[in-house]
Here is the input.
Amino acid sequence: MANKKYSDIDLDLTPHPITGDVAYKFDTEAVKRSIRNLVFTGKFDKPFHPEIQSNVRHSLFDNFSFVTSFAIKTEIESIISGYEPRANVLNVTVTQNDDGNSLDVFIEFKVIGVPTIQNMSFPIERIR
Here is the structure.
């Protein structure tokens, strides 16, 4: 199996300690950042590509139920499989966090060319 190397610009725009240029994220960290960005991408966030959108934020205003959880799970799986070719989604879990008035998302996936299973979790909150 070939050893793949993925890279993306670090969107925190932290400078590289030696060169002073914008730092990069590599391999699994680059894919994790891309997945997170896709989940939070709204319609018209990507110029000239309105088809790249996630409706996850719109679902936050619905009453949380099994149907809402399943819709968010399906949306996340769809956006990742459609627009992140470096990752294969294995599992997505969406749970309600009553204390934080948010949803907790747990994603388990494999990066193409990397033998280990990766996971990431983050909250999704209403911003209004």
About this structure: The chain is about 25% helix and 30% strand. The two ends are 47 Å apart (CA to CA).
